[in-house]
Each structure stands twice: as structure tokens, then as C-alpha cells.
# Entry
Amino acid sequence: MGGHGALGRIEDGVSGLARPATGRVHHRPRMTSIAILLALASAFCFGAALLLTQFGLRDLSPLAGAAISIPSSTLLMICAAPIVLADGIASWAAVPIFAAVGLLFPGVVTLLTFEANRLLGPVVTGTLGNLAPLFAVAIAVVMLGEPLRPARLAGLIAIVAGIMIITSSGRAETARWRS
# Structure
């Protein structure tokens, strides 16, 4: 089969990647486009959430807001679980991994984002949130042995440069967070 037959291929329907049993990844343009649209929708929702959070923080503390927000997410996922998990859980080994992910995001991330939003506002908080790829790439390089190719490094430099430009308005509130 050589890893190229239908049975020798591992499909990943979300990322648009097909990985033959040999471990090599082939990009499928249609699925990659869908993955990009999903990522953009996620970014839009994150930005909208930052703005809405600013309104909520007028009346509640970040901890109180998180105490409402996270159970709301939990309720949504509980409602979706019977549909999403209808075919059964594929691997019990993944369950503790996703439980840990849930503690980080939305758990800890929500608390940190709400407090940063209260102190800095949605613009600076959202801008600094764009450093997530920097940390993701660093962790992937260290933990997964992913190569840091020149194009990825250039992208990371562009992200950091963009954040520096966005937050260097010279206004007092941005000068405060940088110090």
C-alpha cells in the first residue's frame, strides 16, 4: 500500500490535512480554505467577546464575569456533546488532554483576559492576545520538534512588529502597560 491507499491515510477533516501512514502531510486546498475561514471566525468571535466584555466589566468584576461566562460555555458544550460524541469517544487517552486544555482555555484564559481587559481595555488586550502564535510556535518547536522555517519566523516577526506599531500610539494608557 505504501501509505498512499485509502486505508493507509489518516484524515483530519478540520485542518484540511491528509497524512499518509508514512507521516507526511499533504494539503487539500478546499479543506485548508475551510480551516482558514474557521480560524478567521474564531478571531472575529474573540474580538467581539473582548468588546462585549468591556460592557460587562462596567457592572461586574472579572472573576464574577468569568463565573458567568465559563458556565455558559460549559452549558453550550453539554448541549452539543450528545450530537458531537454520538459515535463514541475515539480515544480515552485524549480525554485528560482535553480536560487540561479546558482548564487553560477557556478557564484560565478567560480570567486573565477579563482582568487585562478591565485594566487595559479591549484594544491593547486584543493586540497582546495576538502574541498567541508566538507562544504556540515556541511550544511546538520545543515540545513537538517542529522546524522553525524562515517563513514562519518572518510571520512571527511581523506579528511582534505589528503589535509594537499598534500599541505605540504614545498615549498614556499604552505607555503604562509597556512599562
Remarks:
- Residues 1-56 form one domain.
- The helical segments are 29-56, 62-84, 94-120, 122-129, 132-144, 150-166, 172-178.
- Residues 57 and 150 are 41 Å apart (CA to CA).
- The mean pLDDT is 81.
